[in-house]
Design brief:
This protein is mainly alpha-helical and about 425 residues long. The protein has one domain: Proton glutamate symport protein (Orthogonal Bundle), CATH 1.10.3860. The protein has 22 helices and no strands. It is globular and about 65 Å long. The model is unreliable at about 110-125 and about 420-435 (pLDDT under 50).
């Protein structure tokens, strides 16, 4: 039922975007007056920034401890995830600086933010420290929330009963994401207002800019999968990434139909074991990768940030881009793949670095859903490649079997997979996967 409802929401967003474009082109004056609809939705997303960052950072640090317990495999996986997500973020910045997708929209002055004067370095550092431990979660300061989350995360690691605290924060995270899921049902209204206002202000120029960021994002994901992951996979294991993608073809179709890479999690575990990776490596790498190795999301965060900055005629300097990249590396770790979490993380990064740009998230609301499939597919491909690489580095990959399986010589037993999925659904109904974008 949940997946069907998500499809209805997706269809509603598409219809809302089409209606917004039509209104913006036919009645530009009226369309500009609809901007508060988009602003209101962005404010709802911004409302969720602090609790999302707090929960994901604390749980992310907890996941590091749990993965590190298994020794070599956990260390290899975490090290690879950190390096590869950094590479994905960097590629997003490089491509964004090359194509400048938001340049020419000239939407400066359309946001409602009125910022304070620039602060000195000392004032800035003092501002990071909250008045109290809990005020960071209510003040709306992203950097203060990040600081408190890091302190709490490392403090929990040092507590003997830290697992119980992580369990409680995990429940809080489920509540936060349930609220976020409720907010996302207002996305069609926000997308309609935001797209109508942008098209009303700039006409066809806005459509060209939005098309450019979407095409640029899809092209960047393809470059990353084939140019980075593919070459790395071949260099380490001599396996062909095209054969791997074909082997996982049914899983990619499942992701396309649900916009959720988590919907294919059980099948990825089964297929990686079938491809010759040991059960221990698969059991550590795949679940951890779903929180730490979100390559598609990383590319999206950096490219969308540059798009918004260029569209508002407030381009980010190189030092600001580097600091934004560092923030995204930290903020994206441990983030569950939930619809709307990408928007919240994007808004959080902009709020922390250039608050005037946070309101520009409304520019991306209308096309966010169109990029969710590419994010999910890239995340899934990245985790499949990571599993094979970690298996090879740890000596837990049967390369001869992997070549035979990817070549189609040892077919995967779909009947066994269906039986396993049915058993897992019956025994563990509480582990409800959330839509991943």
């Amino acid at each position: 039922m949940g997946r069907d409802k998500t499809r209805f929401l997706y269809l509603a967003v598409i219809l809302a975007v089409a209606a917004g474009v039509a209104v913006g082109l036919l009645w530009p004056g009226f369309a500009k007056e609809l901007k508060p609809l988009g602003d209101g939705f962005v404010n709802l997303i911004k409302m969720m920034i602090s609790p999302i960052i707090f929960c994901t950072i604390v749980l992310g640090i907890g996941s590091i401890r749990q993965a590190a317990r298994v020794g070599k495999v956990g260390g290899l996986a975490l090290g690879y995830f950190l390096v590869m997500s950094t590479v994905a973020l960097a590629i997003g910045l490089i491509v964004g600086n090359i194509i400048h997708p938001g340049a020419g929209l000239d939407l400066a002055g359309t946001t409602t933010y009125k910022g304070a004067a620039a602060e000195g370095t000392v004032d800035f550092l003092l501002h990071i420290v909250p008045t109290t431990l809990f005020s960071a979660l209510t003040s709306g300061s992203v950097l203060q929330t990040l600081l408190v989350a890091l302190l709490v995360g490392f403090a929990v690691q040092a507590l003997p009963g830290g697992d119980r605290i992580l369990g409680a924060i995990g429940l809080l995270q489920r509540l936060v994401f349930r609220v976020l899921a409720m907010i996302m049902w207002v996305a069609p209204v926000g997308a309609f207002g935001a797209i109508a206002a942008v098209v009303g202000a700039t006409g066809w120029k806005a459509l060209a800019g939005l098309a450019q960021i979407m095409l640029g994002f899809y092209a960047t994901c393809l470059i990353f999968v084939f140019g980075v992951l593919g070459l790395l996979l071949f260099a380490v294991t001599r396996l062909n990434v095209l054969q791997l993608l074909r082997y996982l073809g049914r899983e990619f179709l499942l992701i396309l139909s649900t916009s959720s890479s988590e919907s294919a999690l059980p099948r990825l575990i089964a297929k990686m074991e079938h491809a010759g990776v040991s059960r221990a490596v698969v059991g550590i790498t795949v679940p951890t990768g779903y929180s730490f190795n979100l390559d598609g999301t990383a590319i999206y965060l950096t490219m969308a940030s540059l798009f918004i900055a260029d569209a508002l005629n407030q381009p980010l300097s190189v030092p600001q881009q580097i600091s934004l990249l560092v923030f995204m590396i930290v903020a994206s770790k441990g983030a569950a793949g939930v619809t709307g979490a990408g928007l919240a993380t994007l808004a959080g990064g902009l709020q922390a670095h250039r608050p005037a740009l946070a309101d520009g998230v409304g520019l991306i609301v209308g096309i966010d859903r169109f990029m969710s499939e590419a994010r999910a597919l890239t995340n899934f491909a990245g985790n499949a490649v990571a599993t094979l690489l970690v298996g090879s580095w740890s000596g837990e990959l049967d390369r001869d079997r992997a070549r035979a399986v990817l070549a189609g010589e040892i077919p995967f037993d779909e009947t066994t997979m269906l039986d396993t999925e049915a058993e897992e659904e019956h025994e563990a109904p509480r582990n409800e996967p959330a839509p991943a974008t």
